[in-house]
Amino acid sequence: MLSEKTIVLAIVIQLFVAGFSSFLVVGLVSLYSPDDSQAGLVDTAVAGDDTDDLTRAVQQTPGLGVQQYTSREAARGAFERDEVDAALLAAGGDEGRIAVTVLVPDSNIQTTLVVTQVRTALRTYEQTERAQRGDQLTRATLDPPPRSASNNYFGFTYTVLVPLLLFLPVFIGGSITVDSLTEEIDRGTLELLRVAPVTLTEIVEGKLLAAAAITPIQAVAWMTLLEFNGTPIANLPWLVLLVAGATVVVIVLGVTLAIATPDRRVAQTLYSLLTLGLFGMTALSPLSPINAAARLAIDTPSPASYVTSVAAAVVAVVLLIGVRSVVPWERVLGE
Amino acid sequence: MARWEISNTAGTLDRRSVLLGVAALALVGSTAVAGVAGVGTTPNDGLYRVGVTESSPFHTPVDRATELEPVSPSDDRATLRVVDTDTTDRSARVVPPQTQKAQAALSAFGDAVRRHNTQLMNREENQSAAFPVRVTVQYVVQSDTGVSVDTGGDGDDDSNNPSDGATTDAATPADDTVSVGTATPAVTQSGDRTTVDGQTGGDDQTPRRTATAAEGGGLFGDGDDGAGSLFTGQTTGSPAEIAPPFPFGSLILAFLFLVPMNFIVQAYGSTILNERIDRRGELLLVAPLSALDIVAGKTLPYLAALGVTTVGVTLAVDGGVLSVLAVFPVALVYLGATFLGAMFARSFKELTFVTVTITVFVTTYVFVPAIFTTIIPVALISPLTLVVRDLQTGGVATTLGEYLFSTGPFYVASGMLFLLGAGIYREEDMFTQRRVPAKLLDALDAQLSGRLSVLLLSAALIPFVFVAELLGIAVLVTFPEELTIPVLLLQVAVVEEVAKSLPLYAAFQRDRFERSYAAAVVLGVLSGVGFFLGEKATAIAQVVGLDNLPLGEAALAPAGLGPGTTLGLLAAPLALHVTASAVAAIGATRTWRQYLLTLGLAIGLHFAYDIAVVVVLLE
To answer: Which of A8, A263, B334, B401 could lock onto B12 through a cystine, CB 3.0 to 4.6 A?
Structure first.
């Protein structure tokens, strides 16, 4: 009984939410991990005692440019006049350490960018200095591999965007169920359908199945869109199984709440809280649906990922049979 | 009335529901605590398989990293292989295939190795040799960065402009093509502030603990050791311990204000719609109360609940009075929009979509601009920007003018939403299944009584127009200027002409006024005048210097607010508004199609005028 309009509206809203969140994700990641973004050169002032190694470390870091200053005061002044984007002021510290004071601009995004770049340079510098003191150390560090050219939204796409696109429709599907059922019970409109030559149970089940069928279709559509967008999605059948199972579980929860508390306010609030809680709990368990979705989609599935999909489906079937045999539909809806 | 609403709500809660609710809350709470504590599975567990022999020293870091799963090098499922020919030395060769996944795995592997190195060094006796470099990060305000805007040019910016010398210079992507009335960035030292971390000289204990605690690597942790505090970042320690500050920390906190609002608004929408099902509200309607009384009574408990949660969140995130004051109008708009939505919706399903739409729209409107808090002055259209400033230590102070600019439209808009909704709080609209457009016309019509009310209504619709136009600016500000100005002007023309003529169309369709051309012209003129007067409210925009932004200039200048306004420039927009709305009004007396036709004409007229003004102004 869902009119086509509401489905269209639901999809439009999801599109909007997905667009919004992917904008946020991509934006946040590219800003948080600025090695990857094609930002301009960060001009760095270097000054202080014995800065040869430090200067070399800064030069070796891609994205940083060096400006040498004769004194720390001069470098600080240049930074304050905005002639350079960051300043590294070296001085002798306690116990033979080198104390480096880093001046970075105090403005949200630029700060993060600059700190990340400067940190890379300082780590190179630390390695050099540590190697020079190697005789005082009993353990040796491992050589890290060269920096990769990876973009950081790769991981985010699979761990955030894919689960979001898969499970948001599930959540909305359950919410619609609560709505339509509380309303039918409230208005008593199901009564009118009694004259039809089908049983009430069949009508309700038909409605629920219709609601449950939409989410896997949406999941396939989203994943296909991602494919088009250059993000390969593996194991699509398993993902669909996972989503279908989760949908049925959530819809059964919605039905139960709608019958238990016919007031929509209470039913919806309880539904939101319980779904969130259940979802969060399972997400932390070894059978995490989020992790399963991510690993299946990125094509590194573990046995647990398959088990999660199967378990969702099994729980769904059990719940469906349970609801069918336990809930006295005729009495609940016929009142 | 309010008391009745509370007791009514309490009555719908039976003991079972309360128990379930408490259980659900406990579930959510414990999950959140466990999630924050880093217990259990994270979304990125075992995302990449790394082939490495167990005898290799590189096996341990791979095994410890949550993202990585060690497998035998001969395993063909491995994303990445570590070729360690000599397991006694400290280096190995990694040959990643040229795929995105392998590159991402390589990056994760590098992080794991660096993290492992830090742990090794933490166990060293001689800490000064293990960590020979000690870094202190100071966040300093440079003389040329900042949000505050110099109104520039007019000379008397004493009251509204606390920080001179800072301009929007270099903040907008394309401000070199057009620069009208922007002052040159005079470098003054007065605005300089050196905000130092305040926790300098922390001893060795603190940083090291942070490094081990952050081992799990949360969602936003970049996988390196010492993710430090999520929001502020470590300021002193070895280079590995320096964590870049999370750029939107205070924005995420500001977002916390919006989350509980959604729940309250859900309940509010339900109670309004409940009245409309099965004519339950009939008893209330016949009671000796005005529609406004009923609406106010039903709204008050929810408004109070919103107030309590807002204050609660403020205390939790350590915000100030400004946060509460900035969030309050947002809450009002939430309620107002939900109220109108619940009056329009025909079923709970529709209501769910209405609330979701409202949530998405309001969230976008307040959230997206606030991302750019420190970059563009347009960010001020969102009250969340004020919250972000309030939460940032050493953030920019907010002036009264800025407060009014960002919250004013919200106050007026929520008032209008309630008025529109209350106008159709009557039997023929509440209990019938009228279509939404018809109800919208009813709502507009209900606000009109005499001819002068046309003038008032069209002036009162300004906040919506303003919000729509500002949203346009905020969306378009990132695109190249040559493309956006025509688009923006077209959007402005459409929004303004619709706002001026739709009430007239509603009035004619409901037979409030005689359907003659003479009446149409008179009403059109009145509506144009009302709109023109209301538009002067945008003068507030000048207070915060929105006109320094080329796009802001383009949107506001045609309204006669450009620099160097003369009497002639003032009269021109008045003539424009009057003519255009009179044209649109003529069609409004007839059918829907004819209205669309004349509306199109009016939009064309408006657009042509705006283009002409902008071209003249920019030359």
So the answer is: A263
Q: Are B340 and B427 in contact, with CB atoms under 8 Å apart?
A: no
Tokens of B605: 């007229």
Chain B residues in contact with A302 (beta carbon < 8 A): 46, 69
Contact, B246 vs B231, CB < 8 A?
A: yes
Q: Name the residue among A208, A218, A224, A213 with its Cα closest to residue A167.
A: A218
Instruction: Report which residue type is found at B304.
Output: A
Has domain A42-136 been given CATH number 3.40.190.10? yes
Distance between CA atoms of residues B470 and B52, nearest Å = 56
Return the number of CB contacts < 8 Å for A and B.
Answer: 347
**% pLDDT > 90, chain B:** 0
Summarize the confidence of residues B250-260 as an average pLDDT.
73
Burial A1-15 (b: 16+ CB within 10 A, else e): eeeeebeebbeebbe
Taking the C-alpha atoms of residue B336 and residue B343, their distance in angstroms, rounded to an integer, is: 11
What is the residue extent of each domain of chain A?
4-27+152-334, 42-136
Lowest mean pLDDT among A197-206, B358-367, B537-546: B537-546
* Interface contact flag, B107 A152, Cβ < 8 Å: yes
* Strand ranges of the sheet holding B80-83, from the earlier edge strand across to the other edge: B68-71, B48-51, B80-83, B93-94
Q: Collect all residues of chain A within an 8 Å Cβ-Cβ radius of residue B94.
A: 145
Q: Rounded mean pLDDT of chain B?
A: 70
- Please name which of B355, B331, B361 lies closest in space to residue B258, comparing C-alpha atoms: B331
Mean pLDDT of A124-141: 83
CA B153 to chain A, closest CA, distance in angstroms equals: 24
- For A288, the token pair is 């995490």
Name chain A contacts of B136, Cβ cutoff 8 Å: 99-102
Nearest to A97 by CA among B127, B119, B121, B120: B127
Task: State the pLDDT at residue A307.
Answer: 92
Angular region, A160: left φ>0, alpha ψ -120 to 50, beta rest: alpha
Locate tokens 């609601």: which residue? Answer: A211
For the stretch B270-326, pLDDT in tens is 888 877 776 666 777 777 777 778 888 888 888 888 888 888 888 877 777 888 888
* Model pLDDT for residues B389-412, shown as the tens digit of each residue: 777 665 566 777 778 777 887 888
- Domain ranges for chain B, please list them: 48-127, 204-244, 247-447, 471-619
